[in-house]
Structure formats: C-alpha cells, structure tokens
Amino acid sequence: MAMTVHVDVVSTEEQIFSGLAESVSLPGEAGELGILPGHTPLLTRIRPGAVRLKLPNQEQDELVFVAGGVLEVQPGLITVLADTAIRGRDLDEAKAMDAKRQAEEAMANQGSKLDYARAQAELAEAAAQLAMIERMKKRGH
Amino acid sequence: MAGGKEIRNKIKSVQNTRKITKAMEMVSASKMRRAQERMRSGRPYAQKIGRLAANLALANVTDYRHPFLAKVENPTKAGLILISTDKGLCGGLNTNLFRMVLNRLKEWEEGGVKDIRVTCIGNRGLGFMQRMGAKVISHVTQVGDAPHLERLIGPVKVMIDAYLSGQVEAVYIGFNRFVNTMKQEPRVVQLLPLTGESMGTPDSSWDYIYEPDAQAVIDEVMLRLVEAAVYQTVAENMASEQSARMVAMKAASDNAGNVIKQLQLVYNKTRQAAITREISEIVGGAAAV
Lengths: 141, 289
Prior knowledge:
heterodimer, A: alpha+beta, seven-stranded mixed beta sheet, 2 helices, about 30% helix, about 40% strand, B: alpha/beta, five-stranded mixed beta sheet, about 15% strand
C-alpha cells in the first residue's frame, strides 16, 4: 500500500474534505504543486482552481474547487484553508470603500458626542418592559 | 358589564395573535436548527487557522512581526464591532447586549479611551449606535438567515484598515454567545491585537518554506483569521437570535392561551348571568299574571 497523509480541506462555511490521501495537487501562487507524504513544511497562497486529491483504493481522483486560499503543509498533515469567494486586493478595497461611503452618508447629520444619557434612558425603558413581562409571568397571568 | 359580543371579538383577536406567534415560533425553531448547524460547520476552519496563526507567531519571531500581534497597553483609541440582529421580537437578546456594550464603553471612556469607532453588523445595533451618536465607520444590515462572508468583508476591512493605520489601537467585538437554546450570553471580547485565546495552541515550532514570501503569506493568514473570527461570531449570534426568538414566541403563545382562557371564563359568566336574568323576568312576569 502506498504511503498516505492526512488532508483537511476547510472553508469558513464548512468542512469540505477530511481524510487520508496519497497525494494532493493544487495551483500554488508560484505554480502547480504536487504534494506527497513527507513533504517539508510549506506555507503558500493558492490561486483559484481545482484541488486534486488522490485517495487510496480509489481510481478516480477527488476534485474540490477553491476560490483561492492558503495551503499549509506540516509533517503528517496537509491543510487547505479555502476561500469561499473570489478575493482580490482590488475587490476587497472596492467593498471597503463602499461600506465607508455608506457609513459616511449615514453619519452626515449626526452629532459626534456619545449621548450616554439618552441611550441609557432608552435601555432602562426596554429593561423595565422586560421586567414587567417577567413579573406578569410570575403572577401566573 | 361588557357585552357578550365585545368579549367574543376580543377572544377572536387574541386567537389570531396566538396563531401568528405560534407560526413565528415554528419558523424560528426550524431556522434555529440550520443556524446551529452553520455555526458548527464553521468551527473547523476557525480552529485550523487559529492553530496556524499560533505556529506562525512562534516560528517567526525574528524576521517579521505582523501588526495584529503587537502588544498595546492602555489603548486610547478603540474600535468596536457590534453584532446584533436585523429584526426584533427576540426577547431581551439585543437589549442585554447593548446594555453590556454601553457599560464597557463607559468603562473605556473613564479609563482614558477618547475615541471610539464602531462597525455595526445588523440593523438593531446600527439604529442603537446612531441614536447614541456613536462614530459608525461602517455597517451592514439585512444579512439574512445565513451569514455570507462576502457581505462582511467590506465593513470589516474598514475597521481593520483603521487598526492598521493607527486610527484605533484595539478592536473589540460584541455579540451574543450561544450557550444553549435557552441561554445566550452577551459578550464583549478583544479581537485585535490578537490574544492567545483566539489563536489556540501551537503544535510545535518549525519554520515553513514560504511562497511567494513570508510577509505576503503571513499577512493573508492573519487577515483570514480575523475575518473567520468575525464570521464565526456572526454565525453564533444568528443561532442565538433564532433560539431567543423561539423562546420569546413560545412565551407569547402561552400567554395568549392564558388570556383566551380568562376571557372565555368571563364570557361564560356573562352569558349565564343574562340567561338567569331572562328566566327570572319570565317567572316574575308569569307570577304577575
């Protein structure tokens, strides 16, 4: 039997694959990577593309598509931290600018001093309502 | 004495209310299961990237130190990411969180924090912060039932950029921790600079081969770590929201049931009284004849 290594492929939203594999090939930042058991520790970004897992006792390779992410190779453990969305510096920047603009619009006619008194009054009111409900419940209403 | 018809109408209206709360209870019960599932399925990533970051922090002491790992004593400028729900009708969930956040903000201000910037995720928190007059630098609302990382990236990046440029020296995150279906706990924890808690324990120390270079990879890992942490808390807050709503709506349905029972009793009494009066009138009339 060929040597195997434990491979985990996870994204923020779910665990995609976890198990033993004979080899892993994927598109690294600096070029296509093929990783076999016993690879030296490596940390690299990966480009959008397919992660190909060669599983023991299985003809067909397992294919997982990732939209980029990070590959970590440790002795005896390979981890692919996949992104769920296509990411890029420009794209992220655009999203941030968008969010900023929205917030600035919302801030346009706002005071800058924290109005603790008002917020506290509001919270006190809500708390009083909750306490009232609690009391009514206890009274067996 | 209220007429029989008025009481009947009142019973009808309470019954309708109970139908609605019952429906909402069932909807959030089914949403709750999925929300909890989502919260759990995000954990492996958070754990793995946390361990990786811990390895990096250990392996990379000499060359490059990422700003997220810096140490800050008594920050004077703080950032807060407030995670709340979009909709109400979930009991005291948001109120409890806001009260805690308010106390923390006050403590910070007394402790010398002059400038507080806020990123709001969720409509309720945004409304609260705006009424309070806080400096909201970014926000996202209408997140929906499933947290999408894509929608969170922009607003969170605004806060991270503020941190990297020194506009804030520490970032905290406020959310409701999901303990179990009956119990949710408001929490305010430190997000940046990274604490040992959010990173996990390193396996052992070895240095990696970095491609293309150490700094680029470490930057990416650290950014993903923070994003994953935010994503995870949003998922947790959503699970809390659905559970809290289910419990609140169950209580509302039970209360409506009690009100109906009482009204029914009053109705029966009035009806009986009317019948008795009528009989006595007839008997009285017959006696007179």
